Amino acid sequence: MILIVTALWWLSPRRDALVVYCAHDAEFSEPILKEFERRSGIPVLIQFDTEATKSLGLIQRIKAEKQNPQCDVFWNNETLGTMDLADEGFLFPYRSPTAERIPEKYKDPAGRWSGFAARLRVVIYNKDLISSDQVPDTESKLLKLVEQAPKEFAIAKPIFGTTLTHYSALWKAWGGEKLQSWHRRSLAAGIQEVAGNAKSKDLAASGNCRAGFTDTDDFFVAQDAGHPVGMVPVRLTDGTTICIPNTAGIISGSRKIEAARKLIDFLLSEEVELRLAESTARQIPLGTVDSPRLPEQVKDLMDDAAAGLDLRTLSQARNDCLEWLRKEYLQ
Description:
Elements: H1 2-11, E1 18-22, H2 26-40, E2 44-48, H3 56-64, E3 73-76, H4 80-87, E4 91-92, E5 114-126, H5 139-148, E6 153-156, H6 161-174, H7 176-189, E7 192-194, H8 197-206, E8 211-215, H9 216-224, E9 229-233, E10 243-251, H10 257-267, H11 270-278, H12 296-299, H13 302-306, H14 315-330
Parallel strand pairs: 1-2, 1-3, 6-7, 6-8
Antiparallel strand pairs: 3-10, 4-10, 5-8, 5-9, 5-10
């Protein structure tokens, strides 16, 4: 299939386009990429992925195309997969001047990728089903909530997306043995494992679950629709949160390095972070921005995002956790 798509792409009239593989939701990312295209005059060809397998599917595609790269810029909606690509030599170093506004813990020391516009990992809960004293605002309360009624708690399959990041953080914080035991015990007890964070959000919003794991952008979808939902950031034992930036990097072997650099400069700009903050996803800026323009709900998340775990410390945990999860789900 990849060979067929590749052949058709080279025959297409847009073979001069800057090819962007994008794991971020199209409704938010496509207008930004189209604006870059309009301003720069550089044609952009966007390849998206599915909700259930993003961003792992695009990462596997980039790896499969190693001998003949088809992608120029990878806009990932998380960090650990991008780090994996960098570690395996798939990303071209570029220190964008606009990345200077991004804190160091959200950037690759070698300049191969940078984070921007983050989400927080949260517990979404149904206010009609959970009393104020049950709100899972600490790790111990959260674990107690799951243990009390596992069938009323939702979680996305952890082999993909931000749930994989969440599990990688737990792998490092708890150790692999404890996480594996908790995971298997929860599944056996009937925790509702679903295809993605959006489904987890839907179950809590509709009252079919008391609570579930999701991200801030999905929570705001439920809140904006008028559902009786609240959220609290997931906090690890040491009090850190799980703040998950978008990331952007140039693919090694790109034939359009200069155009790719211009896109990276644009994506890491204050303008783009503000646009994503002002969107219905309410993504959290990592760099300095014009604060009066920030929605109040985003301002309220800034301190929690600042307390985010340094995801750069999770490379080995992610690899070990993913190896285990593949055995659990794919064999």
